[in-house]
Structure formats: structure tokens, C-alpha cells
């Protein structure tokens, strides 16, 4: 067992586990909340962009889709910032967020019927990177999106 810094009494494993869990919980919650807020802002911007750039037959559907995604992520950011929930729910919430991004990307691709453009597919790759990839992979994916 590890010794305590103030005195040389051993730290109980349960106490150490509790401290580590609290540190992870607050750090992860802050990161996830910030990520959700940034995604909400990005999708709100995409919603406005889609309102002015999409063809008339699909403009309402695509704009509503991106605005709905922005609202979902704004609600998730609010949830993460507001509520203290057990660390065990972080993975489930992250998978929910990833699923919402993938559904949005697939619906965008289906609505625009432009698989060659691949914007929806890039959104899927980048959204997966945000949750699972390294910083270098995310930067590379965003750079490929901008260059193509």
C-alpha cells in the first residue's frame, strides 16, 4: 500500500479509488461538455450555411437536420455541464453522441444523393476521430476535407 504524504499512514485502496474516480469524472465531464458545445456551434453554423447553399427541393430537410443536430448537442452540453452523473455513464453518452453524428451524416448523404461529394462521409470520419482518434488524425481528416 502507498504511504500518505502528510504522515506515513497507508492509504486505503477504496479511498485511492474514490479520489482517482472523482478526478477522472470531473476532467472527462469538462472535456465532453466542451466538445458537445463546440459541435453544437459548428452544426448551428452549418444549418445557416445549408439554408443559403442547398438546392430548393432539399433546403428545408437538410437545414432542419443540421439544426436538429445542433439542438441535440446543445442539450447534451447543458446536461454535461449541469448534472453530476457516475463515470460509468460516460462511454454510453459518448456512443450516443457518436451515433447522432453518424445518423446526421448518413441522412445528409441520402438527402443530397451526392456520395461523390462525400461531405457526409467526411463528417462520419471526423466525428469518429473526435471520439476515438488522435489529434494528428483529426487534423489530417479536417485538412483532407478542406483540400477536397
Could you describe the 3D structure shown?
The radius of gyration is 20 Å and the shape is elongated. It has 5 helices and no strands. The protein has a domain at 55-148. By secondary structure, it is an all-alpha fold. The protein is 78% helix and 0% strand. Helix 3 (90-112) packs antiparallel against helix 4 (119-132) and helix 4 packs antiparallel against helix 5. The model has no long low-confidence stretch (mean pLDDT 75).
Q: List the total number of helices.
A: 5
Percent in helix: over 70%
Taken from the alpha-carbon principal axes, the silhouette is elongated
Strand content: under 5%
Q: What's the SSE pattern?
A: HHHHH
Largest sheet: none
Compute the average pLDDT: 75
Compute the CA-based radius of gyration.
20 Å
Helices and strands: which structural class?
Answer: mainly alpha
Ranges with pLDDT <50 over ≥5 residues? Answer: none
N- to C-terminal distance: 56 Å
How many strands appear in the DSSP assignment?
0
Features:
148 residues, 0% strand, mainly alpha
Write the layout of secondary structure elements.
Elements: H1 13-53, H2 59-82, H3 90-112, H4 119-132, H5 135-147
Q: TL;DR of this structure?
A:
With 148 residues, this protein is mostly helical. The protein contains 5 helices and no strands.
Amino acid at each position: 500500500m502507498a504511504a500518505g504524504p502528510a504522515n506515513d499512514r497507508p492509504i486505503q485502496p477504496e479511498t485511492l479509488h474514490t479520489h482517482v474516480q472523482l478526478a477522472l469524472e470531473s476532467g472527462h465531464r469538462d472535456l465532453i461538455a466542451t466538445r458537445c458545445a463546440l459541435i453544437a456551434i459548428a452544426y448551428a453554423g452549418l444549418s445557416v450555411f445549408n439554408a443559403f447553399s442547398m438546392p430548393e427541393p432539399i433546403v428545408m430537410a437538410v437545414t432542419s437536420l443540421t439544426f436538429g443536430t445542433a439542438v441535440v448537442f446543445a442539450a447534451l452540453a447543458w446536461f454535461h455541464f449541469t448534472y453530476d452523473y457516475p463515470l460509468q455513464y460516460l462511454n454510453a453518452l459518448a456512443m450516443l453522441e457518436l451515433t447522432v453524428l453518424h445518423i446526421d451524416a448518413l441522412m445528409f448523404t441520402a438527402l443530397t444523393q451526392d456520395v461523390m461529394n462525400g461531405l457526409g462521409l467526411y463528417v462520419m470520419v471526423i466525428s469518429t476521430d473526435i471520439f476515438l482518434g488522435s489529434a494528428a488524425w483529426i487534423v489530417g481528416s479536417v485538412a483532407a476535407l478542406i483540400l477536397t
